[in-house]
TrEMBL record:
Gene Ontology molecular function, alphabetical: hydrolase activity
Coiled-coil residue windows: none
Pfam families in the record: Metallophos
Stretches assigned to the Calcineurin-like phosphoesterase domain: 4-229
Species per Swiss-Prot/TrEMBL record: Sphaerisporangium rufum
Protein name: Metallophosphoesterase
InterPro entries to which the protein is assigned, alphabetical: Calcineurin-like_PHP, Metallo-depent_PP-like
Amino acid sequence: MSGMRVHVVSDVHGRADALARAGDGADALVCLGDLLLFVDYADHSQGIFAELFGAEQATRFVALRTAGRFDEARGMSARLWATLGGEPREHIERAVREQYTRIFAAMPTPAYLTPGNVDLPALWGDYLRDGHHMLDGQVAEIGGVTFGFVGGGLRTRYRTPNEVDDEDFARKVAAVGAVDVLCCHIPPAVPGLLYDVVARRFERGSEATLEAIRRTQPRYALFGHVHQPLARRTRIGRTECVNVGHFRGRGTPFALEL
């Protein structure tokens, strides 16, 4: 495996401007999901929630969620949706489609994509262009190197749209099998990879992914999801485990030389 350069991004969260340049100088782009920006915890004026209800309401919503008051946050959200009339999912889908239109138009080719926990992958087929390959529980060969893709997240109290049961996630990991590069949205269940030092909380990682890494020993395991991790990389046997970075914040891809 040599002579190929792959750029990897995760947690795009609306950064269409930087995404358009993410493939520059690379043979291919790999995207590990979370294309959408629903709420921006750093800038409350950004994201679908703020677009619909304003920055002040977004600030209140973020404060409730940050304090772990999820029932109150859901109640507040329900009251706000009721002010718009019609079904909330109609307003959400309209806003999501506007973001996906911009993001997929900016997405370089060739690109290999797996969805994140905040994505709505059922809509992706309407936006994928020639040279875009959506994979989840599937394998692709890129320049003679075998890449496996496992998208989405596990169930959490946040109830993001693309969370699945542990058993379903494990089935996707098993379907991928032994690969050279394992690409997931969420990390394996290693504490240092899961702790966000800014949010000061642990995110959920996958025990199934950790077991697969120990058993099959891919050359790399790549992931995102944790925006400011305590540890950005670690080794499990011969496998180099790497958080490729918060693309919305950094605006630059992780470069993988193979």
